[in-house]
């Protein structure tokens, strides 16, 4: 029987020139970097704690806590802008030249950005929802709108509405989950950081900057990814609808798409066993000549 890694036994710190990065480490083998998504009270540990035991049997798992979410030291930069640099600082600080990467939502975008700009650092890439752009569905999705509402007016009821939008089965939203998310999401520093990402003024400013810029969005550069890629998605995702997968599925050169039924945005939690099976098969598949 596999022992579940604990929060305390796996927690590590790495001092960098932009503050302390905190991460969780479990297992031995090739390095596997696990990158969390965004949202109220999110941490890398909460995203991936249930998956660590399975992956630690095959990999040296490193669950990074992004700056700006209340665990690693903030850098002062927008959390999304700070994240790719944090990935590279962690890899460099640990002496890791190349790693496999799994990213949930925002974490998948960050991993894709690293794979685009530093292709030699990513061997294989796995994303969980969030990657790409809306093709048929209106944007932002229901879950993003509820996230913006919570950020503007953080109440327990708004948090519960957002959490329910993340899952297919509402029974997954337990009182324990609400309590631990609420405590971190309402920390003043974390809330300030969240408003830089999802406050209405911040979203409007970002949309205006994108409209005025000649720089292509990251999803228009996905053809530059050289890592073998597995896109995983919940069929019933109400945060980032499934049609967002069409552009990355078509443009990433070596890509597979696996869609899980009866599943929302947190595929690694809601379809845990099936997701772990598919991802482990992909990551451990032998290279073809």
Short description:
The chain is of the alpha/beta class and 289 residues long. It has helices at residues 7-10, 44-48, 52-56, 79-93, 106-117, 142-152, 156-165, 175-185, 188-198, 200-212, 246-251, 267-270, 272-284, and strands spanning 11-16, 19-26, 31-35, 60-64, 99-104, 122-128, 228-234, 255-260.
Explained architecture:
This protein is of the alpha/beta class. The protein has a domain at 7-137 and 217-284: Rossmann fold (3-Layer(aba) Sandwich), CATH 3.40.50. It is 42% helix and 17% strand. It is built from 13 helices and eight strands. An eight-stranded mixed beta sheet has the order 1-2-4-3-5-6-7-8, sandwiched between helices. The chain is globular, with a radius of gyration of 18 Å. The N and C termini lie far apart (36 Å). The model has no long low-confidence stretch (mean pLDDT 95).
CATH first level of one domain: Alpha Beta
Strand order of the largest sheet: 1-2-4-3-5-6-7-8
CA-based shape: globular
Instruction: Using the 3D structure, state the CATH architecture of one domain.
Output: 3-Layer(aba) Sandwich
Profile the largest sheet.
8 strands, mixed
Q: What fraction of residues sit in β-strands?
A: 15-25%
What's the mean pLDDT score? 95
Kindly, what is the distance between the CA atoms of the first and last residues, rounded to a whole number of angstroms?
36 Å
Low-confidence stretches: none
The radius of gyration over CA amounts to: 18 Å
Name the CATH superfamily classification of one domain. Answer: Alpha/Beta hydrolase fold, catalytic domain
Oligomer: single chain
Helix content: 40-55%
CATH topology name of one domain, in short, is Rossmann fold
What's the number of extended β-strand segments?
A: 8
SS class = alpha/beta
What is the H-and-E element order? HEEEHHEHEHEHHHHHEHEHH
Question: What's the helix count?
Answer: 13
């Amino acid at each position: 029987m596999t022992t579940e890694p604990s929060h305390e036994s796996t927690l590590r710190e790495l001092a960098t020139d932009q503050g302390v990065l905190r991460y969780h480490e479990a297992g031995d083998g090739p390095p596997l970097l696990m990158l969390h998504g965004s949202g109220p009270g999110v941490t890398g540990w909460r995203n991936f704690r249930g998956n660590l035991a399975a992956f630690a049997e095959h990999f040296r798992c490193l669950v990074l806590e992004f700056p700006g979410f209340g665990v690693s030291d903030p850098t002062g930069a927008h959390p999304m802008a700070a994240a790719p640099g944090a990935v590279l600082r962690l890899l460099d600080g640990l002496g890791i030249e190349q790693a496999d990467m799994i990213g949930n939502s925002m974490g998948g975008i960050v991993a894709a950005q690293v794979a685009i700009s530093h292709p030699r650092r990513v061997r294989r890439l796995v994303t969980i929802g969030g990657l790409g752009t809306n093709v048929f569905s209106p944007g932002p999705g229901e879950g993003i709108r509820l996230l913006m509402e919570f950020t503007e007016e953080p109440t327990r009821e708004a948090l519960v509405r957002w959490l329910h939008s993340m899952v297919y089965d509402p029974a997954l939203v337990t009182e324990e989950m609400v309590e631990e998310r609420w405590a971190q999401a309402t920390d003043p520093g974390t809330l300030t950081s969240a408003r830089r990402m999802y406050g209405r003024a911040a979203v409007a400013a970002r949309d205006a900057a994108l409209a005025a810029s000649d720089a292509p969005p990251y999803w228009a550069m996905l053809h530059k990814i050289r890592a073998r890629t597995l896109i995983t998605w919940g069929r019933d995702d109400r945060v980032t609808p499934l049609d967002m997968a069409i552009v990355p599925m078509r443009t990433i050169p070596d890509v597979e798409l696996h869609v899980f039924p009866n599943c929302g945005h947190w595929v690694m939690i809601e379809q845990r066993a099936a997701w772990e099976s598919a991802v482990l098969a992909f990551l451990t598949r032998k290279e073809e000549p």
